[in-house]
Amino acid sequence: MGIIEKMDQRLSMMGDMMRATDTDLADTLAHASSAQYSAMVSRCLNCPAPKQCQDWLAEGHTHAQPPEFCPNADQLNNSSS
Predict the structure, then answer these.
(1) In this structure, are residues 3 and 46 in contact, taking their beta carbons and an 8 Å threshold?
(2) Which of 1, 5, 20, 34 has the most other CB atoms within 10 Å of its CB?
(3) Which residues contact 28 (CB under 8 A, 6 or more apart)?
(4) For residues 43-64, b (16+ Cβ closer than 10 Å) or e, as one string?
(5) Which of the 8 DSSP states describes residue 64?
(6) Do residues 32 and 26 touch, judged by C-beta distance below 8 A?
(7) Number of compact structural domains in the chain
């Protein structure tokens, strides 16, 4: 997989993870600096568990706590907590 395809796949997965954990992207961007958001993207691009993430996302979680394996778990908000 080339870098463009990897970036596209991982950013799509990051968006899916944000939806599954009820993380509001606009709110996240409003409260995070560009450096903090860039760090989230970098952690996602360099995640060592993409298959585990894909499998977790495929389960169709909603209103979920972020999985422990996610390198952005601390940054993802759960509105149900």
Answers:
(1) no
(2) 20
(3) 18, 37, 75, 77
(4) bbbebeeeeebeebbeeebeeb
(5) P
(6) no
(7) 1
**Residue from 66, 61, 60 nearest 78 by CA:** 66
Coil vs helix vs strand at 8? helix
Asked if the model's pLDDT at residue 39 lies above 90, the reply is yes
- Residue closest to 49 by CA, chosen among 2, 23, 10: 10
Query: Which residue did the predictor score with more confidence, 10 or 76?
Result: 10
Gap between the Cα atoms of 77 and 26, Å rounded: 12
> What Cα–Cα distance (Å) separates residue 7 from each residue in 24, 54, 56?
21, 14, 19
Average pLDDT, the chain: 90
Of 44 and 28, more confident: 44
| Structure-block tokens of residue 4 | 């463009």
